[in-house]
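Hi V.,

You were right to ask for the full record rather than a summary. Here it is.
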Amino acid sequence: MIVLAIETSCDETAASIAQGDNGKLSIIANVVSSQINIHKKYGGVVPEVAAREHIINIIPVIDKALKIAKIKPAYAKASAGKKLDAIAVTVGPGLITSLMVGLETAKTLAYAWKLPIVSVNHIEGHLYSNFINREKTNFPCLVLTVSGGHTQLVLMKNHLQYKTVGETRDDAAGEAFDKAAQLLGLGYPGGPEISKRAELFRLTNKKTNISLPRPMIDSLNYEFSFSGLKTALLYTLQKDKNYKKRINEYCAAFEDAVVEVLIEKTIRAGKQFKVKTIMLAGGVAANKRLREKLSEATKAIGLEFSMPEMKYTTDNAAMIASAGYFKFKAKKTIAWQKLQVDPNLEL
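Predicted structure:
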C-alpha cells in the first residue's frame, strides 16, 4: 500500500510518500520546503505570507516526492511499477489559509487520479511519527505531544483510539520557548537557540543559580501552564542588570523548568493509566534535554520509550503519511467533495 501525504498546516510545505507492508510503514520520499528564513524578520509566522508561499511551492514539492519515489504523476494508477493507493492530507488544526492550499491540492489530485482520500489531524500526525519504521507497538501508549502550538498528553489504547488526558491552559511549550527567546534577544525560532545555549552552559557548569518556577508541577491533574513561567523570566531579567552576560545560564534555567514539568506529569500519568509505552512527539521533541531526560525517567519505571527520528519531529508530511496509512487501512476514507479544513480541529 502506497500513500501520498500533503502537509501545509503552518509554514512548511511538505509532501511524502509512504509504503506499508503488513503493518510496518517505511518512508520512500519526504520533501519539506521551509519558510523559516522568510518569517524570521517578522519574529513569527505571517499567515498571508505563508499561504502565498504554499501556493508557489506545493506542486514542485509534490513533483519532487513523486520523482524520488519513482512514481510518474500522470500515471499514478498505471499497472506497471509503483502506484499510489490513497492520498492523505492535513485538515487541521492550523492556519486556515495554509490548510486550504494543501486541501484543495489533495482534492484535485484525488479527483484527477481517481484515488481515495483520508483526512488527518495535524496532532494525529505527530502521534504517528512514532510509528514510522516500527515493527511492533505495545499498547496502551501515552504520548507527550509538544510543539509550538500544542502541549498535550494523549492516551492511545490502540491504533486510532485517542483520549486527551491533559493539555496546556495557555501557552504551549514551544510557544513558551519562542517567547523566552524574544525576551533574551535570541530571535525566531527560539527553541533551537535556547537548547543550544543551554547545552553550552552545562558543558562548563554543573547547575544554574537562577530560580524559576515549575508551573502546576504539583497539581493533581495533567494540565500545563507556561505563560506564568514566561512572566517569571521577564521579572527576573528586569531585576538582573547584568543578565546579558548570563544568557546561556538563563537558557539552561528556562529549559530545565519546562522539561521538569513535562516529565513529571508524563511519568505520573503513565503510572496512573498503566500504560506499556511512553512516546514523545511534536516539534519540541527535537529538544535534546527533553529526549534524554524523558527516556531516562521512562526506563526508570520499567516502561518502553519511543521517540521519532529527528527529521520527523518538526512539521513534515511523513507523519501525515503514517497516520494516513493506518486510517486508510482501517477504511476511514472520505469523499473528496466532503473534505473541509478546520483550523481549530481537536483530536
